[in-house]
Design goal:
Blueprint: H1 25-50, H2 83-91, H3 97-103, H4 108-120, E1 140-141, E2 146-149, H5 151-155, H6 158-165, H7 169-188, H8 197-209, E3 219-222, E4 228-230, H9 233-236, H10 240-246, H11 250-267
Length: 269
């Protein structure tokens, strides 16, 4: 190596550094991306510590239907000794005198089983409720063989309807579940061993609830033997139990159906 190959420090001044070498353009983008990611990550970390994210609302699952609450187990009297028990239990459902009048009769559990059986088959329960039958006969308006049933005729049943509709549907359902073992015993003793009282109750309720209720005056026609029939063939073709319900009058019948519907919902399936 010759002397000419060495950089000399002239006058004690260092030579200027060589100009920086510019990085290739793609390297700039890589460095910028790394910095951006670091900044974003740092900002995200700062924001996370500053204010926690709001959780997305979670859709609540639909509430399960409330289970049917069975009444506490009750030691029921034997079938032939149920009257005192029923007078206390059912007497609490209504303070109406009509209910008290029926509860004063005997063999109440068998009467109930017979009424359920008859209505479930479409028959009228009137013969099982003679103690509640009105003293007055049907009254009509108009003349001739075709007439309309008067409002006075419907008012004969106001007391019975007031008794039925004064009861709480849930309380009725609870009373039914309480006495069901003895009621079913009385029902099967009638020769209905092929089914049980629950099935008969559902059939009876469904039949009465399905009764078409007129929304105006009801026309009847005189038949043989001073009997009356509904002029409307659709009403005349109903089951006797449904016709008995219509004898209460449209307004009264609608109130009874409302209560029966609530009882059916309370009893469930």
């Amino acid at each position: 190596m010759s002397v000419d190959d060495l950089e000399l420090d002239r006058d004690g001044v260092s030579p200027p550094p060589p100009p920086p070498v510019e990085a290739p353009s793609h390297t700039k983008w890589i460095v910028a991306a790394i910095v951006a990611v670091a900044v974003i990550a740092g900002f995200t970390r700062w924001w996370t510590l500053r204010e926690p994210p709001v959780a997305e609302p979670v859709a609540e699952a639909p509430a399960a239907p409330a289970p049917v609450v069975e009444p506490p187990a009750v030691l029921l009297p034997p079938l032939d000794e149920m009257d005192p028990f029923l007078r206390t239990l059912l007497g609490a459902l209504s303070a109406r005198p009509e209910l008290a009048r029926w509860l004063a009769t005997d063999n109440l559990i068998r009467q109930m089983a017979a009424m359920i059986d008859r209505v479930s088959q479409g028959a009228s329960p009137a013969r099982d409720l003679k103690v509640l039958a009105p003293n007055e006969g049907v009254t009509t308006e108009g003349r001739g063989r075709t007439r309309t049933i008067s409002e006075a005729s419907y008012r004969r049943y106001d007391g019975i309807v007031a008794t039925v509709t004064s009861m709480d549907a849930a309380a009725v359902a609870t009373a039914y579940r309480t006495i069901r073992p003895r009621l079913n015993e009385a029902y099967t003793a009638m020769g209905r061993a092929d089914t049980d009282v629950d099935v008969a109750v559902r059939r009876a309720l469904d039949l009465l609830i399905a009764t078409p209720i007129p929304d105006g005056p009801v026309t009847i026609v005189e038949g043989k033997g001073a009997t009356w029939a509904y002029a409307d063939p659709a009403l005349e073709s109903l089951q006797p139990a449904q016709k008995q319900l219509l004898r209460l009058g449209p307004a009264n019948a609608a109130r009874v159906v409302t209560l029966l519907t609530a009882v059916r919902e309370q009893i469930g399936s």
